[in-house]
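Good day; I would like, with your permission, to put a structural problem before you. What I wish to show you is a protein chain and, alongside it, a tokenised description of its three-dimensional fold. Here, with my thanks, is the record as I have it:
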Amino acid sequence: MERPVAIRGLSTQTAPYDLPQDIVGRRAQEVLGPRYPQFARLLSTFASAGIERRQSVVPFEWFNDRSVGWAERNRAWHDGCLALFRAAATRALDEAGWHGSDVDVVVTVSSTGIATPTLEAVAADELGLRADVLRVPVFGLGCAGGASGLSIAAQLARGAPGSKVLLVVVEACTTSFRTDRLQKADIIATVLFGDGAAAACLTTGDGAMTCAPGAQHRWSDTLDIMGWDVDDEGLGVIFDRSIPDFAARHMADARDAAFAAMGRKRDDVDRLICHPGGAKVIAALETALELGQGALDLERDVLRRHGNMSAPTVLFVLDAARRTGVTGRCMTTALGPGFSAAFTPVEFAA
């Protein structure tokens, strides 16, 4: 029998600058309205997105400079994510009762910027990581990175019983704000995305919260649904309007395939822990997965308070589930580029 993997510590970390949604909407109208003729038709989405506020690694004033190029965007991403990485990792280690020197493997998940050396290398000395720590940076999973990262960390922990694995998932979506490339996806990104980080400490053994390696499902001929365009100015979001409808039509089959791959059945799961990609996506998941309207209440609350932070968001929901006393067998799930869905089982002891 395969040993369980315990989550000894779990933390979330918000970015330092608050972005109230009503102020973001007014500011976007000032900056983007004159440059994008269809903006007036999209203005209502700021109010209907189910978001009250988001957080950013850069202040409002940073978005005033329309000449910001890729180098400056990536520098803002790097500095902001490094601070979030340190804070989230430190809190998770403290909760686990671990020192940085105890960590054998560190998994870093991020898709909103580029760092070489990678973030965990830059933060290593401050966190006290050993010189021989195994570094596993993961790029390109987008919004699915939280669920997939947890699965990767669980698999690494199970593969070397007794080893201590630190997972850090960090994104700074706001640094990709663009005024030079005004497509509808860019406006929707301005409506939805924020910045944040989450971290977890995993090792084999029993515990109040355990997890196991999960499964992924990728749909063919869907590469243009979600991802990044790369040009001289930076990363440009690909975020197709079909995502909620696609999820409503196809998510149930993906769930069933992933559950089968993990040797699980629907009845084996008491609650899904979903990535709240947006209000329409949440509603689509409730319909497609026959959860009942309003079932994803924790997801809506995380979206309301933090927006869509990409990869870390599902771990914010997981932490909220823990703090509200959820028990039983859960399954984290998130949609991401590929186009794909990731599933990772988590169990809370009664």
In short: The radius of gyration is 19 Å. The longest strand covers residues 5-14. The mean pLDDT is 91. The CA atoms of residues 115 and 313 lie 21 Å apart.
